[in-house]
Structure prediction request, 319 residues.
Amino acid sequence: MSAGASHGRVAIIGAGHVGSTAAYALMLRALFREIVLIDSNAALARAEAADLSDANALARPARIWAGTYADAGSAQIAVLTAGAATHGAQSRLEVVAQSAEVVGECARQLAAAGFEGIVLVAANPVDLMALVAFRNAGLPAARVIGTGTLLDSSRLRQALAAELAIAPGSIEGMVVGEHGDSEVTVFSSVRIGAQTLGELGALGSPVDQSAIAQEVRSAGYEIIAGKGYTSFGIATAIVRICEAIVRDERAILPVSSMMTGQLSLAGLYLSLPCVLGAGGVERVAVPPLDPSELAGLMASATVIQAAIAAMDAEPAGPA
Ligand code: NAD
Prediction:
């Protein structure tokens, strides 16, 4: 199939702000021939599918409908956005129990429908919800992925771009660890063109790293304070991950994947740069980290491990 061609079917579970915006972005990108929306609020899914279909004749046509898990069974990718949204200053980790119940149920329904594609989890807290999806979907860990810190990394590149008046596409940089308050900005490997931040600073353009890290960490809260939810950034991250998978790009993107011994970590999902291709996460790469970044990443892993332990201790928690 050529690089510009549409692929098969994507299922979007949860047709709320994130799910419907992701459907719209996927439609405009013409990545799939079929987009099925599934939501426990069937009227909402039908309305979003109808609204999206209204744009179809003016975009590159896709078949878009409100469907069931039976329709999702043959999808290449299931994007899981159903989950508890955070409000105000609520942290992502505060909605674990509510989201876990929803995500566990959706993943079990996918498994019952015979789904054998790739599950892409966006529901928060995403590192824990990717683990819940993995535990319930009956798929190898490589085929259950969380959107992770791709969004935070995009925010980092945009923040540096605004500060330095350089196009964000010309800035390499990433955030690793939890998609949440303990995330770690890897300033030591930021490259602007070929220059490090230190080299640029020596030329008279010093960057306040802690201010940038804070701006990136609080970006989601700021947007939620203004409009009640976030949608465009995460939808675009979803499109980028889907694109890397369906085109078998082997692109390296910071997403949340199962740790299998990297930095002696195992049994949890967190974000490190991953090679993404047709099989999902083809490889996890541990980037070079300076000592404080490494300490930050290990602390972030500890936060996630503690949240998993608390989640598993909940009597009503998922399998
Ligand atoms: P939303 O409330 O607008 O949408 C959630 C949808 O899920 C609703 O339409 C609801 O009816 C549906 N739903 C609930 N239970 C369901 C079930 N069992 N089966 C099917 N559908 C079900 O919320 P939103 O703003 O779209 O956010 C969705 C999730 O994405 C939240 O957890 C939010 O925190 C998360 N999010 C993640 C990122 C990220 O970077 N990973 C960014 C933004 C939002």
About this structure: The domain at 7-146 is CATH 3.40.50.720 (Rossmann fold). DSSP finds ten helices and 13 strands in the chain. The mean pLDDT is 94.
